[in-house]
Amino acid sequence: MYCLVDAVAFYASAEKVFDPAIRSKPVVVLTNNDGCICAICPIARRLNIPKFQPYFKVKHLLAKHKVVIRSSNYELYADLSDKMMNVISRFCDTQHVYSIDEAFLQFNGFTPLINDWHQYGQLIRRTVWRETKLPVGVGFGPTPTLAKAANHAAKKLNGFNGIAVIDSEQARQHILAAMDVADVWGVGKRLAKKLKLLNINSALDLAKQTPKRMKRLFSVVLERTVNELNGIVCLNWDDVRQDKREIFSTRSFGERLTDPVALKTALINHSIIVARKLRQQRSLTKRLLLFVASSPHESHYYKKSLVYELPVSSADSRVFAKAISEIFTQLYQHNVRFYKCGVGALELSSQQFQQPDLFAPSQDNIKLMECLDSINKRYGYDTLTLASQQQSQAWHMKRAFLSPQYTTRWQHLPKISCDL
């Protein structure tokens, strides 16, 4: 049996964890630079607030209903995600973290100990709530895709109340018949449109198709999906989530930049993020892609990208920062109001399988990077930084509604006042 545990409106729910005063109020969370709505709590969803709408378009609607607005607090979300995953891991012998707010569980040795899957799901939900104050949906199924479908039913379909179990043919058909084909894991809206032209409208309609026909008409991926919907396990953890083949860090600025120091600082910070992500999945890169751009709505649009070839594959933050300094003058142009920049790592390779070069020794200091990462993980990102990361603060994104970073900054620790 497989299980998918998924937080309900994770960003919005995370904002309520350390602020009990807003737990019964509608809450929305905005994207980078407070641009669009990216998360809506269940209470706010009843107000028909549209998701992914620009904030300025729905500003008056939010004010009318006294909706609490928050900027994206990524530091808080990452820490709460770690806590939630640690709690969930106690309920299975195999866990696969799929994203920041969802994880697959597999019960090999646990299965004989579980008499009632629905009751076990209740235990998972209660424990996660008690220890993290995050609401989650729990779905059980004989394959990862059916577990994902059960999780969808637990959160979106009437009558399930946060837990759904597909452990019989009747339960499978009931849930799949109530699901739109676009809600099937791995299908999406674009493929769903093509399927609906073939009169395949629900998840059950898709499950009734011949796998070989779906492979011939679409892809081997859809063939596997059909088999999984019929209880045949086709996916393993490597299929579910492989190491990334490219890693990017990009972001638009809170305000237009003309200062070369601020732009260079932004690029260096993006390169540090890329280096950290490379180390997390034990990868190295030989090529860095750097780009800068003004807004396409400017009268003189400017965009330029360059590829920097590293002498030796690397994941060292210092090597990346030095590369930015060497190539920056080729990217920067005077009198341009820069709107966005980014750094990407291309042609990734495993850190484990590297052939050293006798004539070009690696400049990476693995122990130093491990020390850097461990300190920042314990005390919060950017506790320890390179000097070149702090040259300017002008490039930071706009977060006018940012809540405190309760778990990663000492000065933001919750304060409790007791009246004697």
Automatic annotation (TrEMBL):
<dbReference type="Pfam" id="PF11799">
    <property type="entry name" value="IMS_C"/>
</dbReference>
<dbReference type="InterPro" id="IPR043502">
    <property type="entry name" value="DNA/RNA_pol_sf"/>
</dbReference>
<keyword id="KW-0234">DNA repair</keyword>
<dbReference type="InterPro" id="IPR050116">
    <property type="entry name" value="DNA_polymerase-Y"/>
</dbReference>
<feature type="domain" description="UmuC">
    <location>
        <begin position="2"/>
        <end position="188"/>
    </location>
</feature>
<keyword id="KW-0742">SOS response</keyword>
<keyword id="KW-0227">DNA damage</keyword>
<dbReference type="Pfam" id="PF11798">
    <property type="entry name" value="IMS_HHH"/>
</dbReference>
<dbReference type="InterPro" id="IPR024728">
    <property type="entry name" value="PolY_HhH_motif"/>
</dbReference>
<keyword id="KW-0741">SOS mutagenesis</keyword>
<dbReference type="Pfam" id="PF13438">
    <property type="entry name" value="DUF4113"/>
</dbReference>
<comment type="similarity">
    <text>Belongs to the DNA polymerase type-Y family.</text>
</comment>
<protein>
    <submittedName>
        <fullName>Y-family DNA polymerase</fullName>
    </submittedName>
</protein>
<dbReference type="InterPro" id="IPR043128">
    <property type="entry name" value="Rev_trsase/Diguanyl_cyclase"/>
</dbReference>
<dbReference type="Pfam" id="PF00817">
    <property type="entry name" value="IMS"/>
</dbReference>
<dbReference type="InterPro" id="IPR017961">
    <property type="entry name" value="DNA_pol_Y-fam_little_finger"/>
</dbReference>
<dbReference type="InterPro" id="IPR025188">
    <property type="entry name" value="DUF4113"/>
</dbReference>
<dbReference type="InterPro" id="IPR001126">
    <property type="entry name" value="UmuC"/>
</dbReference>
